[in-house]
From TrEMBL:
Residues 4-107 form the SET domain. The lineage of its organism: Bacteria, Pseudomonadati, Pseudomonadota, Gammaproteobacteria, Alteromonadales. It comes from Parashewanella curva. PROSITE patterns: SET (PS50280). InterPro entries: SET_dom (IPR001214), SET_dom_sf (IPR046341). This is SET domain-containing protein.
């Protein structure tokens, strides 16, 4: 779940993006994973889904190599777009922190 206020809006990066509604300081924990609420599918379960369902999970989720399963988050973190110059990063496979100060309204 988010530890900061965010919203989803149109994005130039990927159509829909996640934007902060507050100033975030470098090193601040902005998101903590809630595994009990997220969807986890084995490769076999994923293969049983129809093509549209697979495409949705591939777009909004990811394959977790460490855990060997497909992951789809239950909340708006799925709108967090991938950028070559990222302003956040995963720590300990459990939470996201800011790599630098992030201004209010920034994607």
């Amino acid at each position: 779940m988010f530890n900061v206020a965010v919203c989803i809006k149109p994005s130039a990066i990927h159509g829909i993006g996640l934007f902060t509604k507050q100033m975030i300081k470098k090193g601040q924990v902005i998101y903590t994973e809630t595994p009990e609420l997220d969807l986890h599918l084995s490769k076999e379960q994923f293969a049983e889904l129809d093509e549209k369902e697979q495409a949705f999970i591939e777009h909004f989720g990811f394959f977790n190599e460490t855990e060997n399963h497909w992951h789809l988050s239950h909340d708006n973190i799925r709108f967090c777009n991938h950028a070559t110059q990222s302003n956040i990063t995963w720590k300990d496979n459990a939470y996201l922190v800011a790599l630098r100060d992030i201004t209010k309204g920034e994607e």
